[in-house]
Each structure stands twice: as C-alpha cells, then as structure tokens.
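Supplementary Methods S3. Complex input for the KG4-bound model.
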Amino acid sequence: MRILGIESSCDETAASVVEDGKMVLSSVVASQMTTHGKYGGVVPELASREHLRAIVPVVREALGQAGTRLGDLAAIAATVGPGLVGSLLVGLTYAKSLSFARGLPLIAVNHIEGHIHAVILEARRAETPVEFPALALVVSGGHTHLFEVLEGFHYRLLGKTRDDAAGEAFDKVAKLLGFGYPGGPVVDRLAPYGDGSAVRFTFAKMKGNALDFSFSGLKTAVLRWVEARDMESEIETRRALRRERSVPMTEEWLAVTPRPTLDLLASFQRAVIKELLTRAAASAESMDARSMIISGGVACNSGLRGAARSAGLGYPVHFPSPGLSTDNAAMIAAAAFPKLARGEVASLDIAAQANLSLA
Ligand code: KG4
Ligand code: ZN
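Predicted complex, serialized as structure tokens:
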C-alpha cells in the first residue's frame, strides 16, 4: 500500500512515497535555506513563493524515484498544520487537487504527529516496535512539546515551551553571533571545541506546569554575555565568511571563532540539552513510560543524542535517522498509514490550520 506524502509547513518543500508505512521508496526535500539564510530566518512570503515554484517538480521527482504512478497510490497525505499558513496552503491545495483528479483519499496530517511517526516508521521497518506508552519529545524550530503517546496513537500534551522553541533558541543565538541561519547545525559542529562548563546559565523555576519549557531567558543571557564584550569585529568577520561561502566548513568557522566564543556555544548547547532531557525524563516518569521518542530538527544534535544515550534512563530512547529528523514528507506518509487503515479520510474542503494542536 503506497502513500504519497506532501509537506510544506515551513521552509522545506517535500514529497515522499512510503510503502506499508515503513519502506521509504523516495524522499525528496527541496530546501529554501539559501533563500532565507540571507535574512537570518524564514520570511513567510518568500517561503510561499518558493513552495509554489518547487511543489510540482518535487512531487514528480518523488513519484519518479519511487517508480510509482499516481494510479498505484492508495492515498495522498498532506500536512494540514501547524505551520505558516501560506506555506501549508501550497502543499495542501496541491494534494487536494491530485486527490480530486485521481479519486484518491486525502489524509490530513498534523506536522507534529508526523515528527513522531518518523520514529514509528523506522521502528516498523526494523521490526523492533516502539513500546507504549511512550514519551515523545518533539523539538524543532517551531515546537518543543512533550506528549504521552498511547497505543493506537492517542496523544496527551504534558508540557511545552512558553516562549521560544529550542531550535529557535539555537537559531537566534547563532544569528546574534554572526553564524547565520539555521543555527543548530553550526553550534552542534563547534560545541565540541569549547568547554561546556565555562559559562554558567541558570533557568528560572517554572510557575504552574513544571514540565513546561522556557528558552527566552537563556537567549537573553547570551545577549548580555555578548554585550559585556567588545565582539563587533569578530561577529562581522563571521558574517563576511557566511556571505562569501554559504555553508562554511568547520575549520573555516574555527579560524574566525576564538576560544571564549566556543566556550559560550558549548555551554549554551549543554544548557539546552540539560533542560530538554531533565523535563523529558520527569515527564516519562510521571506516566511510567516504556520508551522515549526524541524527534524534530533538534533531534539531529549530536550532543543531545549522546547525552540521552548515556543518561541511563532505564528504557529505550529512539531517535530518527538524521534525514528523517528535520522536515520531510516520509514522516507525513508514515503518519497517514494508520489513519488510512482507520478510514480517517479528510474532506476536500479541509482548511490549513496555522495553530493546529495535536492534543
Ligand atoms: O524540524 P525542522 O526541520 O523544522 C521545524 O519544524 O521547525 O527543525 C529545524 C530546526 C532549526 O531550528 C535548526 O536550527 C534545528 O532544527 N537543528 C538543529 C540541528 N539541526 C537542525 N539544532 C541543533 N542541532 C542540530 N544538529
Ligand atoms: Zn518540523
């Protein structure tokens, strides 16, 4: 049973054909990184325009690579939210048109559920099913959420960020220091060259739900650290490198990043990881989780992967492989698989929902 997945919620136009919810026959992702990189973040109007340009060739390529014709498909799945509404509209409208023209069921998928299914897909393929109830930490540029996941894919929200998402904190700190967008991958590569205990960050105690996150204080602490030093020319040197080479190599970054800044990056990353894992472990404990799922763009972070593995949590921790951690459409097709089996077909007048929640 083959499902075509389409994802366009933010700055990636993606299409994928997945068979039986586990075999990724193709996964095409057209990144808009070079478009938004210049502005240090995603510009919604530009994103919609780029999706419009990319959607037809990306879907065609996904079908071609999978050796699949529209007539071979069991359903078309698309992200319905949350995300940028103009971006969501492009993928969803295209999926509706294909569904209408070919008489195929349309499956509407929540993007956050998609991130969770990136792990389910790979576990299904490896025949090592995820054990439920599972605690899911979805951590990306737009979300930092903790969910209880029950058998049959029922979700309960346990905690979420009250301000910035963790990926957003990586992006803002990197931008402030002249590393450009997206920030997570650069910080990840440079953090091992610094001392993670050099700069101390403190987190305010949460009032209300103790499982909620807050990253804005950390971002402000980094800003204060920068303001207390004369860093203008150092930052400008990195901006110039970024203009010259759109994705500089680690050695090139190291040549323009003195030790104190590397220490700052390492300490910042360590603080984010500690915050994420402490709350995830506490949530897992509160619901007697039998496994943990960590997914979303920030799940690519090697420091986070290492820390989760060595934390001795007493239950398995599942990460998707890096290509399925950041936004992709295979996770959307995978999330649609059980929905199709349950007959959860969307009507053609379903609207894109920028603030759609999962639970
Ligand atoms: O899941 P994703 O592709 O898009 C959203 O749904 O937001 O996540 C993108 C986010 C960006 O904030 C990016 O900086 C972050 O994931 N990211 C990372 C890493 N790779 C991507 N953060 C930390 N370490 C990484 N290696
Ligand atoms: Zn995402």
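Residues 111, 115, 140, 296, 327 surround zinc ion (ligand 2) (CB under 6 Å). The chain has a mean pLDDT of 96.
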